[in-house]
Amino acid sequence: MVITAIADGITRGVETVTDIATAPFTDPVIRLGVTGLSRAGKTVFITSLVANLMDRGRMPQLAAARNGAIRTAYLQPQPDDTIPRFAYEDHIAELTASEPRWPEGTRRISELRLSLRVQPTGLLSGWQGPRTVHLDIVDYPGEWLLDLALMDKDFTTWSADTLARIAARGEAGSYLGQVSGCDPGADLDEGVATALARGFTDYLTVARARGWSDCTPGRFLLPGDLEGSPVLTFAPLPRPETPGRRSLWREFERRYESYKRNVVRPFFRDHFSRIDRQVVLVDVLGAIHAGPRAVEDMRKALADILGAFNPGRNSFLSRLFQGRRVERILFAATKADHLHHAQHAELTAITEALLRDARERADFAGAKTQAMSIAALRTTTEAEVDHEGGMLQVVRGRLKGTGRQAAFYPGDLPSDPAHLLAPARAGEATWLNADYEVMDFAPARLTLEPGEGPPHIRLDRAAQFLIGDRL
What we know:
471 residues, alpha/beta, Rossmann fold, 2 domains, seven-stranded mixed β-sheet, three-stranded antiparallel β-sheet, disordered N terminus, YcjX-like protein, YcjX-like
C-alpha cells in the first residue's frame, strides 16, 4: 500500500515536470472544475457558459468579450479519451427547444474542451498575433464530491457521526429500525448485510430529495457499474464492545475502508490533480426552504468539501513539487432568478456567511475566492403586484409540469445573515418568524438574436473571475 502510494506520487511528479517543461511550447490550458451539491444546476451552468462564450452578446462583464479580444470560440475533441464527453449539443437543444425542458442532472464525470482564439492586448499587442487558449471543463456529480470528507474518518467515527446526525430525521426511521433489530457483533450474514445497505440507500435517496446535503457515501446514490458489489454493501452501525473477526461490524469496516481506497481515493487523485480553477454551485434557497437544520447541514458539508481542495497559487516551484493547486474558487448561489433583484444582495451575503469557514481556509492558502448570486439560465421576469395595500416585488415564470404562468414571492430574506445562521447552528427545527418558499420553474421559451447566448444573471461576472485573467 505504501509502495503503491509512493509509485503514484512519482508518476504524478513526472507528469507535472513534463507539463511544465512543455508549457512554453504549447497552447495554454485552463482546467475548470464544476461541482456542487445536488440540484445546484451544474449541467445548466456548463451548457449556458459554453453557449455564452461562443456567442458573447450577453457577456459585457467578461473583459475579453467586451473589448473584442476573443475573436472566436469553438468546440474541439477533449484531450482525455478515457472520460465521457459532456453532451453539450443535447443539453442546449433541450433548453432552446420550442417546448424547453431541463436536462438530466450529472450522473458521471464528463469533460468538454472549448478553444478560444484570443488577440493579446496591452503594450506589445500590435506585435503579436492571436493565440489559442483551451478551456477544459470537468463536470462531476456533487454526490461523489461529498465522499472526500470520508478520507479522514475511520468506520467507527463515520458510523457514530452518521447515526447521531440522522437520529432526529423522520426520513431515517425505517433504517434506524433495521439497525436496532440486528446484532452488529454477530457473524456476517450476506442477506442481513444487503438489507442494511439497501435500507440505508433508501434513506439517502429520500434525504437528498428533501434538501439534506451530507448524503454519504455518494456512490450509493449513483453506483454505476459498482451496483451490487461488496464495496457498496455496508452501512453505519453502532460498534459492539468486542467485535469478532467474522462479525458483521468487522466486515462492514473492511468494506468501508475498501470503498475509500478503491473508489474515493482514485477519483480524488485522478481528477483533482490538474484542476486550477473551481466553481462550487450551491442551492442556498433550497436549503433555506428545507429549514434551519438543512442550512447547518449544508454549511458543514461545504466546509468539509473545501478542505479536500489544494488551494493556492500555481507558481513554478509549487507545481513542480506539490502538484497543481486551485488558484481561484467561486462560490455561486444558483437560481438567483427565483428572487427579485432587490434581494440578490441578501442572497449573496447569506452565501458568504454560510461559506465563511470554507472560504477562510482557501484564502489562507493563497487562493482567490469570491461569492456571488447567479442564474446560469434566467427563467423568470420581474414584476410588482398589489398586495394588502402595498407593492410586492415578485418574479413570473412558467411552472414546471403544467407550463402555466405564475407570479411568485419567496419571502423576505434577512439583511443580516445571522438571523438565519444562528437558529441553524442552534439546531432549531423551523424558522420562528419567517416562511420561505421555493418554486419549480420550467425553462423560459427563448428567442435568441444572432450573436447572443441564453439569458442569465451574472454569468459574465462569474466567467471574468474564473478565467478573465488568462484571456
